[in-house]
Amino acid sequence: MSLPAWDDVQPLALDTAPLPEYGAGSLADLLPTLVAHQGVEGFAPVIGELAPADRNCVFLIDGLGWQQLIAHPEEAPFMASLISSSRGGTGRPITAGFPATTATSLASVGTGLPPAAHGLPGYTARNPATGELMNQLRWNPWTDPRKWQPYPTVFQQAHAAGVHTAQVSSPTFENTPLTKIALSGGSFRGRLSGEDRMDLAAEQLAAGDRSLVYTYYAEVDGKGHRFGVDSDAWRGQLMYVDRLVQRLAEQLPPRSALYVTADHGMVDIPFDEQSRIDFDEDWELRAGVALLGGEGRARHVYAVPGAENDVLTVWREVLGEQFWVASRDEAIAAGWFGAPGVCDERVYGRIGDVIAAAHDDVAIIATEKEPKESALVGMHGSMTPAEQLVPLLEVRS
Q1: Which of the four, 61, 120, 141, 384, has the lowest number of CB atoms within 10 Å?
Q2: Residue 153, Cβ neighbours under 10 Å: how many?
Q3: What is the pTM of this model?
């Protein structure tokens, strides 16, 4: 099986950045395709290889990139066995969207919209109304969720159309703003253990003639961040989640389809000065910068008013051999955040004046302002295949 021609990409020039497949094969296209087949009006089955099913379940494994999965078939034998028969027999992955990070990807999954529309364009982003950086995963500082992301979720629209909808996840996520604006609709069922989530997801699938169920597991991502994506701890989590997928697959009720996917992959970043560029210690990168947003491999850079062009020039000169560096307008025009040239007005100012997306195994850390994030082993966010490609594995009953 051959991968898309992502490995042939050359660095530096903006037109070489491997764009997400918005509108054809991205995370934002998955739920719209499934509910279109279930008869929910207003949606189209844009991932053409997926066949209709009355009951659909999406199991999202946080941090399980496509390249990491195919590199570890011995740790994930059940998922590996599904590759050749998935996505209409092509076995192809889908793309996460940019940036390849949890808050952005979960919003894309749940709303069926790209980041330029749903408005969660990174781990942290500037709130134009206050000028502050907002952490869109932890929702800090507090911002009215419905004003930040006003569109209905696919779950809400499916529920209104008579589809039985449910989210099965950790109880800690039930009332978070991110859940409310990205994954709400129907009922939320909290379960602590992975096994209980799989069992309940199967029960919820069987609870309706037409069902849409979402379930989630986080610790593959957690172990990757702390120990790296080829550590024993990470491999152990992969082995565990492979058993969870098999447990759920073996309980599917009739007329069901299970789709296993992820929000992003991950890259291990060496602990040296060449691989971890410290913004807090680099006077050239700091010059003219009012706020540093995003995360190590996908930075939003907010310039002091009037310094936007100077910041862009310096960041390109300093980082241009290792990062794709674009202005806001260039990134939008190129299609980094959605369809080329399209961006909601309310979202425009949340995107950095300059965006830096890593090509090499390198990150822009900030040891003073972001000490915890700067100490992570595994990181993600950019458009490289290791981060951007995610599985779309399929089991049907």
Answers
A1: 141
A2: 27
A3: 0.95
297 φ, ψ (degrees, to nearest 5): -105, 5
Task: Give 394's strand partners.
Answer: 259
User: Closest Cα to residue 292, out of 212, 200, 363, 378?
Assistant: 363
Tokens of 132: 């502050």
Which residues neighbour 267 within 8 Å (Cβ) at sequence distance 6 or greater?
A: 229, 297, 358, 361, 378, 379, 380, 384, 386, 387
Cβ 66 vs Cβ 388: under 8 Å: no
Distance CA 183, CA 263 (A): 14
Cα–Cα distance, 193 to 187 (Å, whole number): 18
| Maximum separation of any 2 CA atoms in the chain, in Å | 61
- Cis peptide leading into residue 93 (ω within 30°): no
Instruction: Transcribe 234-245 into DSSP letters.
Output: HHHHHHHHHHHH
Strand-pair partners of 217: 61
Residue with structure tokens 């024993």? 232
Helices 194-206, 232-249: axis angle to 10 degrees equals: 30
**Pairwise CA distance, residues 54 & 264, whole Å:** 28
pLDDT tens, position by position, for the chain (397 residues)? 344 444 443 335 888 889 999 999 999 999 999 999 999 999 999 999 999 999 999 999 999 999 999 999 999 999 999 999 999 999 999 999 999 999 999 999 999 999 999 999 999 999 999 999 999 999 999 999 999 999 999 999 999 999 999 999 999 999 999 999 999 999 999 999 999 999 999 999 999 999 999 999 999 999 999 999 989 999 999 999 999 999 999 999 999 999 999 999 999 999 999 999 999 999 999 999 999 999 999 999 999 999 999 999 999 999 989 999 999 999 999 999 999 999 999 999 999 999 999 999 999 999 999 999 999 999 999 999 999 999 999 999 9
Which helix H or strand E contains 372, and what residues bound it?
A: helix 371-374
